[in-house]
Amino acid sequence: MNQKFKDGSAEWADTNNWALILGGSSGLGLASAKKLAAHGMNLIILHRDRKSAMEKINAEFDEMRENNVEVEAFNVDAINSEKIKNTLPKIAEKLAKNGKVKTLVHSIAKGNLKPMLGESDLKNSDFQITIQAMALSLYDWVKAIFDEKLFAEDARIISFTSEGNTKAWKNYAAVSAAKVTLEALTRNIALEFAPHGIRANCIQAGITDTKSFRMIPGNEKLEKHSLQRNPFQRLTTPVDVANVVYVLSKDEAAWINGVTIPVDGGEHLS
């Protein structure tokens, strides 16, 4: 439901502000898109899904449009440089009437979850693919949108990391390396793009039951351990994370820049 203000409008209604969501058809990206749409933010969503899943996904997008916002979706590979190049003119065309990207959310979860030892062990190429998808693609998109002059004067870059950035989990080495890279890139974007009005931050979500989490070997043990150590004895939800994406997009969050924020109910404390 839209947050209503005294004038009866949604927060970003009629502002021509847009959110660009990379990986916005499920998990944290979808929840973030829904939250921002509920507050009047127009959406450009990039996702990569099979045709068999599109009926359900399109229903989600139609539900967002009920907030009287525009939702433009592209079913393309957002980590492919050629696809980025081909999609940019379409995004620019959509924003042609003074539209600007207020918030860019990076929620691409495509990585190799393999052990370091064994028959199907991690190779150098597995690390490269994972780091490109889950980290370097953030810089590719930030630079592309910046070069096209599509960012708002006060823009927000938000990426998602995990506790695997400092802790070793079996089969998580490639993703862990990607998350560390993602955080380093986010900090440098925060530093070097600040003169242009761009703020960049990472959200470190607690254990969240998403499609990507369920792909991690041994996720049941991670979930059980999380429930035991979380002060609230529950998992983080995509909505918990989306709420912070919304807060970081607000004008009042303009002085938050270059940090990694735990959004886990205190799970990281023990």
3D structure, described in words:
With 270 residues, this protein is of the alpha/beta class. The chain has one domain: NAD(P)-binding Rossmann-like Domain (Rossmann fold). Helix content is 40%, strand content 17%. Strands 3-2-1-4-5-6-7 form a 7-stranded parallel beta sheet, sandwiched between helices. Helix 2 links the parallel strand 2 and strand 3. Helix 1 packs across helix 8 and helix 4 packs parallel to helix 5. The chain is globular. The chain starts with 16 loop residues before the first strand and ends in a 7-residue tail after the last strand.
Layout: helices, strands, pairs:
Elements (H helix, E strand, L loop, with lengths): L16 E6 L4 H12 L3 E6 L6 H12 L5 E5 L5 H14 L5 E7 L17 H24 L3 E11 L11 H20 L5 E8 L5 H4 L4 H11 L8 H12 L10 E4 L7
Parallel strand pairs: 1-2, 1-4, 2-3, 4-5, 5-6, 6-7
Helix pairs in contact: 1-8, 3-4, 4-5
